[in-house]
Design goal:
Helices cover 23% and strands 18% of the residues. It is built from twelve helices and 19 strands. The radius of gyration is 22 Å and the shape is globular. By secondary structure, it is α/β, with parallel strands linked by helices.
Length: 510
């Protein structure tokens, strides 16, 4: 539907925007695992994030959130409410992370909020096409436009080329987590916006993406911490697809521990170990980078309180995906395991969302935009793939019938995903992980690697949270395997994935 028609639809279907419509502060971090937040039981005992914990204490914490698989598609989902295969015209182009899209074919929903009377703003990392949408989707925008400036795309923590309201980029110094927080606090305080309007702010931190650089003030934190060696950090890994079994990201050090393979290369950024190259040092450095994020959350909550907006603002804290540190041999996101992609998701709205709730139902990134529309009292302008989470926010322990679908289609979007590629260069284009689809429902999770003849995976996340024991290979679980397989295909079809009718054959015995 053309953007003009969408705008007219919104204006006709909504009355004049009421003054008590809530503000929405959406804090979005990069590569932050749920294990980095101390209110999650999977966190190491030495992890301390008091401000994020406080946010969880006054709202609902989701235990199993699968927001995305890697940076660009997760952001495309946040802007459209659709899985990667439903984002039309989006494509990688030119030097990585160069990308483009047609806003008429793939409109972004903040334009709908804007047309309905919200003041919309985005601050921080931008990774979804060169066109950032200022003046169309956003009233105020301060962004690090990585697709436009590939040579600057590795500058996650300083000297970023920043574009303000569509103007040419200028280099900005300072530690980026703090710099973004300063800009967000100013916005909340009323700068650069119409104070008569409710607002939506998407605050996109670049931390804790590689090279995992903490602020100077945090580089002595967590001294002497201990990080247990994951049991499957070294190959071989039975019951896993071939690309997992042979992963050699970690090698044995002289003391028998694990060190990052010197041959390990990251695109656009360089590994910059501050404390050493072993697992202990890397995990410590990664968690140090979270400390500035936690401080930022505390500052923003205090700014809301000081400005009297804390009782009329939905605060959402999420990450685009997680990242594994040794689990299944990985040091990355992208793969379908909880260690790689499961991130924190916390929602707070004092007086509206019950305090201290914990929701065990798996949810996905496509659920967030419909939830925002629900809080804003607006109708969805087009078909989105997820569901409004309001019922779970009201009663976190209720039965939830909707499964959480997660998918990786490499660097392909829209119609380019209609057929699963056979060419390994395209099939394994993203960090040497092939295309896959996964479905989590209740306590079980199904994974289908989209390589012809490859085995399927089925895990009981309650009994086996580390996803070490593949039930798909056991005859006793064949009935459940078939049911989860069918449910996955049904969810693909419900969300108009053309590939659902062309999936490569599985290798699991029938």
């Amino acid at each position: 539907m053309h953007l003009f028609r969408i705008t007219v639809l919104v204006l006709l279907s909504s009355c004049a925007l009421a003054a008590d419509r809530p503000n929405i502060l959406f804090i979005y971090t990069d590569d932050q695992s749920h294990r980095t937040v101390s209110c999650y039981p999977e966190a190491y005992k030495w992890v301390k994030t008091p401000n994020i914990d406080r946010l969880a204490g006054q709202g609902v914490r989701f235990t199993h959130a699968y927001v995305g698989t890697w940076c660009m598609p997760s952001r495309a989902t946040m802007l459209t409410g659709r899985h990667q295969y439903g984002v039309k015209s989006m494509r990688m182009e030119g030097r990585y992370p160069g990308s483009t899209y047609d806003p008429k074919e793939s409109p972004f929903w903040p334009s709908v909020f804007r047309a309905a009377g919200y003041h919309t703003a985005q601050i921080g990392k931008w990774h979804t096409g060169v066109d950032t949408g200022f003046g169309r989707d956003w009233d105020y925008q301060v962004v690090w436009n990585r697709p436009r400036h590939p040579a600057n795309a590795g500058n996650y923590y300083g000297d970023q080329l920043i574009e303000i309201n569509g103007k040419p980029a200028a280099k900005v110094g300072g530690y980026t987590t703090d710099w973004y927080t300063d800009r967000a606090a100013e916005y909340i305080q009323g700068e650069h916006r119409d104070e008569k309007k409710p607002w939506y702010l998407w605050l996109c931190y670049g931390a804790v993406h590689g090279p995992y650089t903490p602020a100077e003030r945090h580089r002595a934190a967590y001294a002497g911490v201990e990080v247990p060696l994951p049991g499957d950090i070294f190959p071989e890994r039975s019951g896993k697809p071939e690309y997992v079994r042979k992963r050699d990201t970690w090698v044995r050090g002289k003391d028998g521990g694990a060190e990052l393979n010197p041959a390990r290369k990251l695109r656009t950024v360089k590994n910059m170990p501050l404390h050493g190259n072993d697992l202990q040092a890397w995990v410590r450095q990664y968690h140090q980078g979270v400390l500035a994020i936690d401080e930022a959350v505390g500052r923003l909550l205090e700014t809301l309180r000081e400005t009297g907006q804390d009782r009329n603002t939905l605060v959402v804290f999420a990450a685009d995906q997680g990242i594994a540190w040794g689990q299944h041999g990985f040091q990355q996101k992208i793969a379908p395991y909880d260690a790689n992609i499961r991130g924190p998701l916390i929602m707070s709205f004092p007086g509206v969302i019950p305090a201290g709730g914990v929701c065990p139902s798996p949810v996905g990134g496509t659920d967030l935009p419909p939830t925002f529309f629900g809080f804003a009292g607006l109708k969805l302008p087009w078909k989105m793939h997820g569901h409004d989470l309001a019922p779970l926010l009201k009663k976190p322990g209720r039965r939830w019938e909707h499964p959480a679908l997660t998918i990786l289609t490499g660097q392909s979007f829209g119609a380019d995903t209609d057929r699963v590629p056979v060419d390994p260069a395209k099939l394994y284009a993203t960090a040497k992980v092939p295309w896959w689809v996964s479905l989590a429902k209740g306590r079980h999770k199904y994974i289908r690697t989209l390589v012809k003849g490859e085995i399927e995976e089925l895990y009981d996340l309650e009994k086996d949270p580390g996803e070490l024991h593949n039930l798909a290979l056991e005859p006793a679980h064949r009935t459940r395997l078939r049911a989860m397989r069918a449910a996955t295909i049904a969810e693909l079809k419900r969300t108009d994935a053309v590939m659902a009718d062309h999936l490569p054959a599985v290798g699991t015995p029938e």
